[in-house]
Every structure is written in structure tokens, then in C-alpha cells.
Amino acid sequence: MMRKPYHCLRSLGTALTLLLLPSLSSSPLLAQSSENVCRIGLHYKVLGEGTNSKSIPVLTAVQPFGPAAVGGFFPGDLITQIDGVPTTGLTKQQISELLVRPVGEHLLTIVRIGSGTTARILRPSCKAPYALTERELATAFSGYSPMDQAKQQRTLSFYFESSAPFDWSQAKTFAFAPSEGEHRDLYDIVYGQIAGLLEARGLTQQASGPDLILECSRSEAGGGARLTLQVTSPSKPNQTLWSGTSSLPKGTKEAHLYARQVIPVMLQSFPFLASSQANYTEETSRYLYTGILYDSRDLSRIVDVEEGSPAFTAGLRVGDKVLRINGKPLSPTTVRELSSRYRNFLDETYRYRSAEAVRPEQAPWKSSDYGSIRKALEKDKYASIFSYLFFFRPYINETEQTELIFEIERRGETYTLNLAPVLRDETVFIPQ
């Protein structure tokens, strides 16, 4: 059964946040409602809001695998119309009200560098209020693998500038200036990353007669090394169309790693000029995806299976009752009791954590205790069946085999199905 875009949209970009499972027993997820919970998977800000200039919304982040990503939206897209309503001059609240209207799909007119003006469909992803996605369960059971479920506030310092007006809607192609000097290896890494980001937005890399020339440079300043990305036009190479600069840490290895992290954040505002202080939320989310939605009222019951997902391909269907996963029984089946078992696991395995944290489940595991952690997860008293979401980690599974074996009950008959999950990385940087 395929999830359909229902006509009850409660809030913009809503994705039920479960955290920690101990709080699930009082979560509104357990309340029955005629409304469905929907999300659109995008974040935006309004350029020019509160100033004398005409404001317009621009996408700042898109949730991986979410409706906006599926619809082909990217950070940097300017939204000029929503369902035929011009967005120029609207406030963020007014734009939100347009996006949460109870419709099955939205028609968004956008302006994108490399593509000009185009229209795209945004279909909200909706589910019953009692349905739990694996994304939500991975957040709920983050203590099994804290490195794969984290949320932190970060600040990066940038300097953006532009010295010449330019019609970015006319830019279709780009090329890179030749990499030279002792930092050539750093530039080559950065150029490959930039090319992928710009091509995803619709630009084409073209060595002959490009519309834009991009060049990275590394310089030394009083505060240390800096990395600058500069964009110029071949016809006027001395005029900077756009540039962004950020500090680099000491050390070659650290500089390369930092550049990989900072370039996507720097380009989120491209080709617009952003503030010098980039405050953003880094949401890390990695888990094994099968496409199953579980019933929060009875966790053994499958209430939906996303069409085309690994679970759907393997033959799992709505109404199936999950008895075991990889030999572990799905028992208890109530949120309250499973929460209690999970709390006990966190308390009794705390000695295997490598550092203190605000909450014990946020501290990483000691590599020397991976074997002890796996043994603990095998104990029935902890009911750790949903650790399968992190079956790709050595403290969960000592082999490289991530195939899952589901034992289910259907119409009184028992079946065993083998399922190959997909590792999803839904990590996203959300500017504030």
C-alpha cells in the first residue's frame, strides 16, 4: 500500500519528533485523530523581510529523501509563487500559511541559477498520527548509536562580498580556474565537491566558454589560514560577482576535512549574500531503511509499507504482524513497556560509554567494549529489537552482513522473509 497525500496538513514541515522513547508514552502519537501528520521537508528564509526592499523566500535547506528533495528542490531556489500566489512582499508567516493549506500537492514557481524560472510540484508526505516511521524510531532509540543520531548548534564565520551586479538566471555553465601551487590537492578536493553541488542545481561544467569562472585560494591572515571561493565572469575577470571566505584550521588533514564540511554551508546562500555569522543546526540522522511504518498502539503491527521500498519488494504488507527480526522477538509491543526496557538498557550499559554527556545515550561507546555491548543487546530483558536500525555498526553487528530476517504472521500463518535494507544518511545543515 502506498502512502497517499492526504488532505489534512497540520503544520509546515511537520515530522513527529519522538525523543527520547521514555517520553513516547505521553506523546500525542498515541492519541487517535482524524487528521494526518504531514511534512514537506524544506527550510527557508525570507530575503529582505523587515527592510524597505521587496522580500522573497529562498530555500536554505532540504531534508534528504523528503518530499522537497523528491520534488527536485535545492537550497538557493527562490520561490516566486505558491499555487499561483506571488510571494514577493509576503512575510514568513504568510508563506507558511500557503504551504500548510490542506491540499494534496503544491505548485511552486521557482527561480534557480542555471535553470531560470520553472514550476515544480511539492507533494507533502502524510501518515496516520499513530504511525511510526523508522526515521522517528531511529531518533527514539538514539542511545543504540549516538554517532548516527545527533543534533547540535554550530556557528561558522564567513565573509561574503560582491562588487558587480549580475543576472544569475542567465548563468548556465561554469568552469574552474587551474589548480596550482602547494595547495593544489586541497583545491582539487573542493572543486570536485563544488561541481557536484552546482550540477545538482542545474548548472553544467563546461571548459569552453563558460558563463562563470570559479577559483579557490588559500591565504594567510593574522588569525590564521583562510579559504576563499571567488566567482567571476570570463568577460570581466577583475570584477567579483560573488565570493565567500572562511577560516581554515591548522594542519593539512584538518583543513581538507573542514573544507568538505564548510563548502556546502557556504554555498547554501549562493548566489546571494548571507550574514557573516552562519548559525545553523546540524542534524545527523543515519539508519537502515526498510520502508515499514509501525503502529504505536501495537508496535508489532505494520500500518503501512512505502511502495518501492525494500520491505515492499520483500513482500511485507499492511496488516502483517512482526514476530521477530533477526531472531529477536518483538515483545513487548506497547510503547510504555518498551520504553522501560530501553531505559534499563541505557542505565545498565552506561559503563561502556567513552565520555560523559548531558544524557547518557548521547555519549559514544568505547571501542574496547563493543563485544560487551553486542552481548547486552542480545538479552531478552532489554527488548532491543529496534537496534536493527543501526545494524551497520560494529557494536550492533560484528559482521558486514546487514540483511534482515523478518518472521511475520499473516492471516494466522507464519512466514519468514529476507530483506535487504538501505543505509540512509539524512544529515542536514539548517541555517538559523
TrEMBL record:
InterPro entries named in the record: PDZ (IPR001478), PDZ_6 (IPR041489), PDZ_sf (IPR036034)
Keywords: Signal
SMART domains: PDZ (SM00228)
Endpoints of the signal sequence: 1-31
One Pfam family of this chain: PDZ_6
SUPFAM superfamilies: PDZ domain-like
Occurrences of domain PDZ (ranges): 27-114, 302-344
Protein name (Swiss-Prot/TrEMBL): PDZ domain-containing protein
Species in which this protein is naturally found: Porphyromonas somerae
